[in-house]
Each structure stands twice: as C-alpha cells, then as structure tokens.
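Action item from last week, closing it out:
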Amino acid sequence: MVRIADCYYASVNRRTCQLLERNTASMFSKPNVTTTVSNLSSKRMGNFRLGYHYPSMQLHTEGQQYIIKGFYNKGEENFIANYFLGYTDNIISIKPKKLKKLLQDRIFALESHYKRA
C-alpha cells in the first residue's frame, strides 16, 4: 500500500501521493478481495527467482525474513493455491486459513496422485 512517506522518498508530489494512497487503500478494502500474507524461509529464498510473482502480490524482505503480501479476488483461490505451490517448502506460514487449507488439499491431492502412478 502506498503511504505519503513513501511518496516523498520517491519524489512524487503530495496531491499525486494522496490519490495513490486513497486508491491503493480502496483496493485492499473491496468486499470481494481477500488479503494474504505468507512468511517464507530465508534459508533458500536468496536464490529463489524473484521474478516469479502474481500481479497483485509482492515479495518483501523484512530483516532476514521474506514475506509475500497482496490480495486476490474471490474465484481465484485455486489459481493462488497453484501460485503458492511454486514456493515449495519455503513457506513457513500462510494466511488466511481458507487459503492455507486449500493449499494443503492441493498438496494432498498431488501426493495421492503420484502414489498411484
């Protein structure tokens, strides 16, 4: 989300920054949007492809920790679960619980599939 302090750092005028702040705030407050936060293991993330991203999600570093923050629209849950599968065992935690459960179900389905193969 854009904050006025970020705009000054990026040399954007105050009016433009206020518009950005209001627009990004409304993006995250839409009733049909789910916000997600995932903590990732820092051990191997340094070598992870940072270009692998979903358009409304961003990879942030906070100290030694990598965090994906963003949102997705209702109906995109399966797509987002597949997106997080790409992070393999680098995921430490995932919110909301509904997305975590969907990801666990996907992993279980893949495991069952490959046991039969």
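Closing note: The first helix runs from residue 4 to 9.
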